């Protein structure tokens, strides 16, 4: 009974909500009216409240109010689905429904509703791909091998924060947790959904995957929420760093800002130097508390003391020049290095570090293959 007020509090909604809503012109015709009128009758119309004629009128007023009061954005299909949970919970208080929607979008969908949102969407999906590779390299490798990329299925998920995918009762349960997380939390929800479908995905080709997501199987929402929180808590924050994220409460990492232009070409995420140091816990390294294994790919002339540069303690040196390929073009490591990786990497995050100018992303692809080909236990993986 108090969910609407709890959500409003979580979104820090306050002020003269009624006065603000009343002052917005919701009657003058706009260019988006026709699309709004087409979308509303298709939005959660199994629900008696939202499918009523009064529900449709309230839907339209809230959506028009948002479009009019945010001239820097445009109406995209999916905005109706985003407003549905707020309207349902505040059916007799349109001002609060509008205020919650207006606070929700900049927090989780910053710049998603720009007229040209391609850069924002591409970065978001790239981060999603990286997150899949970080937590489940085998699944990421399979999806890549069949060219089943997130652009084919995940845009409606994130553009509507799953409100277009799940029925209202599941959305309420999901958003109860989502509203407590930051802008990266929806990425973990998407990952949790994929992990529920993992067994099916790993045995499916491209066409089967398309069919699977065109009619999404039943998702255990309790498991989805629990897994999302667990994944969120164990993932370094810099792994999900986005340049296009809202500046409010945003994780900042100068060491990651220069890599925005290469996101699409990389198969796994980058981690900040500061977080790597935290994972290594070098003060207690003799007690084996390190949560990461560093693979240093600098060539021998640079490792470890060339130009007064040292090496990270307990790191594994695999010079880039020693990585070869077999007749099929698959990466091959020196046997001794392969054994060393097998012994040292179990249960740890593997981080590839390189000298300036070296292609650590390319080595990342090679090493992921080496791990999978040799059935090694790869927990998660990123670049520095």
UniProtKB/TrEMBL annotation:
Xref: PROSITE patterns: RHODANESE_3, TBC_RABGAP
SMART domains tied to this protein: TBC (SM00164)
Task: Show the Pfam families listed in the entry.
Answer: RabGAP-TBC (PF00566)
Start and end residues of each Rab-GAP TBC domain? 1-182
Gene3D superfamilies in the record:
putative rabgap domain of human tbc1 domain family member 14 like domains, Rhodanese-like domain, Ypt/Rab-GAP domain of gyp1p, domain 3
**Which key words tag this protein in UniProt?**
GTPase activation
Q: What is the protein named?
A: TBC domain-containing protein kinase-like protein
Q: What species does this protein belong to?
A: Ladona fulva
């Amino acid at each position: 009974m108090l969910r609407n007020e709890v959500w409003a509090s979580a979104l820090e909604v306050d002020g003269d909500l009624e006065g603000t809503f009343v002052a917005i012109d919701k009657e003058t015709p706009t260019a988006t009216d026709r699309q709004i009128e087409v979308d509303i009758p298709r939005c959660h119309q199994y629900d008696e409240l939202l499918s009523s004629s009064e529900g449709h009128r309230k839907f339209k007023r809230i959506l028009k109010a948002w479009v009019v009061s945010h001239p820097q954005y445009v109406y995209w299909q999916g905005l109706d689905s985003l407003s549905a949970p707020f309207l349902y919970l505040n059916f007799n208080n349109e001002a609060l429904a509008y205020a919650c929607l207006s606070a929700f979008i900049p927090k989780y969908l910053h710049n998603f509703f720009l007229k040209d949102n391609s850069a924002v969407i591409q970065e978001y999906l790239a981060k999603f791909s990286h997150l899949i590779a970080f937590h489940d390299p085998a699944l990421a490798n399979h999806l890549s091998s069949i060219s089943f990329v997130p652009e084919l299925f995940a845009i409606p998920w994130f553009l509507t924060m799953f409100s277009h995918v799940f029925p209202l009762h599941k959305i309420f349960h999901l958003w109860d947790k989502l509203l407590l997380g930051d802008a990266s939390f929806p990425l973990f929800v998407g990952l949790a959904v994929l992990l529920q479908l993992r067994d099916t995905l790993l045995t499916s080709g491209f066409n089967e995957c398309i069919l699977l997501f065109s009619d999404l199987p039943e998702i255990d929402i309790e498991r989805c929420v629990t897994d999302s929180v667990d994944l969120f808590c164990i993932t370094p924050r810099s792994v999900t760093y986005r340049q296009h994220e809202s500046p409010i409460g945003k994780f900042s990492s100068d060491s990651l800002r220069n890599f925005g232009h290469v996101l699409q070409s990389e198969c796994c995420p980058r981690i900040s130097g500061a977080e790597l140091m935290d994972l290594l816990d070098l003060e207690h390294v003799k007690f084996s508390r390190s949560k990461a294994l560093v693979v240093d790919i600098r060539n021998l002339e640079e490792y470890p003391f060339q130009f007064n540069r040292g090496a990270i303690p307990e790191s594994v040196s695999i010079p880039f020049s020693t990585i070869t390929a077999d007749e099929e073009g698959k990466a091959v490591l020196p046997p001794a290095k392969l054994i060393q990786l097998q012994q040292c990497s179990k249960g740890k995050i593997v981080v590839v570090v390189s000298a300036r100018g070296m292609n650590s992303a390319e080595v990342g692809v090679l090493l992921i293959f080496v791990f999978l080909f040799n059935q090694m236990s790869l927990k998660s993986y990123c670049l520095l």
